[in-house]
């Protein structure tokens, strides 16, 4: 679709809640004209589009032409990892990493740093270490590498893949983890001290839906935010097969609601539904304001670490695939898809009461609603929010207990967000199909 105007308008809506209510609809339209490269299309909404780059391919002309034309963010595929940067303890080599970084910067691209601490691709000497000696070596590694690249990195994957797969929601066992559960926050603090300008991310895979692993990470990020541990972003690797989970966007949104940026960091998708799935992932990012950008894990299918699965946007000979067009179209559709509505319903916040307001992200066929519960002049011990869904159906919700899926849908606090100090707020959310308009949330203390 090609749009010729750019407009931002505020249109008042009529609220029908019983108590005093006010609201506004924010409609953000698409950019002036469709862009023809991934990077330029993403930039229209302030986002980036990146790729993993291997230093050894920087003299392949086809590779470099696509890299320079299409992408405006770069991640070194292996060159900034621990085994590459500190092959012997205390002896640092940055030749590969610098090569990738310098190629990117001299062509106007930004760089994501990947990765300071990871249980894989540890150098042999670190694999053989444990305890306080290892902890010291880990933190020195973070400090040295982040200092070498100080001021040059958009975002660092400070810690990669520290959570276990499966239902535990807990940490993965590794020699890093066995130095003490606080190793992740120690790493973030060391990285912040070394490079205060870089955004600091936690990065992982199998986190593409609301599942025990992503919820474990969500809980860690919430804890870090509440205790002032410096974390700015969460990376979702998104190594997918055939589809994006139906709650992909809702999962990104719940992290965004914690006050961190979300980034899709290593996207690749195999399977016959690839083009559709790439479109769905891109639309999900575009619909989440805090989704800063997307990085694909390689350029051509032949560059992929998933040998034989052809999960990327270009063929081995460098031709654009159907998946490329899906992504480009979704980036160019920009803000026209979702519209954001904010309604505030005031339910007499007086002593012991509460108010609920909803921020609605609506697109063709679905929505994500983020509801803010604010205590009145007395603290809440628990709350209940009642909403009306006349033309929509809830498919998932988070940070609340829910009863119902359409018509009158009621949400109550979960154990960690029932206590809200006077005048303070907490948030929960839900996503659904159809329309989320006319929710008119009302709040009651319980
Ligand atoms: C992969 C690289 O693409 C390969 O070249 C290398 O042999 C192994 O690592 N998650 C990550 C990435 O965070 O660093 C991995 O990259 C892919 C999985």
From TrEMBL:
| CBM2 domain mapped to chain residues | 347-446
The UniProt keywords, alphabetically, are: Carbohydrate metabolism, Glycosidase, Hydrolase, Polysaccharide degradation, Signal, Xylan degradation
**PROSITE patterns given in the database record:** CBM2 (PS51173), GH10_1 (PS00591), GH10_2 (PS51760)
Q: What is catalysed by this protein?
A: Endohydrolysis of (1->4)-beta-D-xylosidic linkages in xylans
Give yes or no: UniProt keyword Hydrolase: yes
Q: Name one GO molecular function term.
A: polysaccharide binding
Query: Superkingdom of the source?
Result: Bacteria
| SMART domains membership | CBD_II, Glyco_10
Domain GH10 as annotated: residue spans: 32-330
Q: Which residues form the active site?
A: 266 (nucleophile)
Give the E.C. number(s): 3.2.1.8
InterPro entries the UniProt entry points to: CBD2 (IPR001919), CBM2/CBM3_carb-bd_dom_sf (IPR008965), CBM2_carb-bd_dom_sf (IPR012291), GH (IPR017853), GH10 (IPR044846), GH10_AS (IPR031158), GH10_dom (IPR001000)
- Signal peptide bounds: 1-34
| UniProt GO BP | xylan catabolic process
Q: Which PANTHER family match?
A: BETA-XYLANASE (PTHR31490:SF88), GLYCOSYL HYDROLASE (PTHR31490)
What family is this? Belongs to the glycosyl hydrolase 10 (cellulase F) family.
Question: Which protein, by its recorded name, is this?
Answer: Beta-xylanase
Higher taxonomy: Bacteria, Bacillati, Actinomycetota, Actinomycetes, Pseudonocardiales
